Amino acid sequence: MAFCFKQKIRQSDMTTIYRRVFRIVKFLDARSKFLIRLGKLESFLLWFKLRKAEKPKPIYICGLARAGTTITSILLGEHPDTFTHQTREVICPYLPYLFNHLAPKTPFFASNIERLQQDGLQINPLTPHAVEEMIWMQFFQTIHDENSTVVLDNTISNSNFEQFYTKSIQKMRMAKGGSRYVTKNNYNVTRIEYLVKLFPDARFLIMIRQPENHIASLLRQDHFFCQMQPETVGLVRLLGHYECGQDRRLINVGNDAVIREIWELWQTGETVRGWARYWTSVYGFLADKLNENERLKKACMVVRYEDLCGSAGPMIDRILAHTGLPADIFQRTRNQFAKNLHLPTYYQPNLSDQELKIIEEETSAVASRFGYLTNKVFPGMPMENQIYTVC
Predict the structure, then answer these.
(1) Residues whose CB falls within 8 Å of the CB of residue 280, separated by 6 or more in sequence, listed in order
(2) What three-state secondary structure class fits 248?
(3) N or C: the chain end with fewer CB closer than 10 Å?
(4) Taking the model in full, what pTM does it have?
């Protein structure tokens, strides 16, 4: 399991690895249109198998960054019935069948390295990774334009994307085995209605974290990403990760005024209030959607980070039940994760009393809708593991 590897390599070696990956990804990204045409040719050559393929029943993991999406994707990626994009596929996600047959010969890093976020999670070429956003960006050119809404609802139609994306998932299944596609993609928070229209049997895990700790983690991550080397920033951009750092772009859930307010707060030094308002904007949008749409409510399960870390066993059981993944063949892995999952120990939130008060002012109304009854920093004690309904 990727999260419990302890061996680390030197920072200089990590920089070399990420520089090498960036150069490969940049070279191929410049030829992405051609690679997409090759992907369509691959589907044509596999038409006989594809016409017999079942309609995918994906499992989507989404939420703001730093809410536990990665560890949840690693967890479900270990299930025998699932398949995922892997780290090595950042090189070329457009030809999944061919690439996964050539992957063992692909030059890539062989050791376990700490991921870019430097949060203790170790990755290797086979670790589940957020890759599919690279495909979304090819077919929705303004998907990261914060000056207009990026919400995709059930009125949206993009046949080119829908055919390519569906066939990509089906080809991944042919190449990898398993029956359920699992993907972590934070930006899918604004696409749930659209995805349910495409895949009626899809299931969603919406990851959320207690506001003070979540915002403290985002502040730390943003500071770290702002110090990245240019080539690393370039790699993050090519992969479609705009959550933090020099090229940070907000998720516009349909409220242009809020986006302008957040940037004004940041530009005038009110960084904490800006992040708190952003947290409220995104999770308030999700709460409203789940409250007004019974179909979405059935498809979605809210997973609080504190419950996942503090009461891992019961929470994993609930995740398996919601997604429909068999529990009996997963017990050993389930028990290992339940033993090893814990709240972060590599840093402690460093927020002043005034900053805590600001976060409470901005987030308490929305936080309470997700079962956070009090807005206090949790130093290590898990929240009460209760079943709750978004209201």
Answers:
(1) 362, 363, 365, 366
(2) coil
(3) C
(4) 0.89
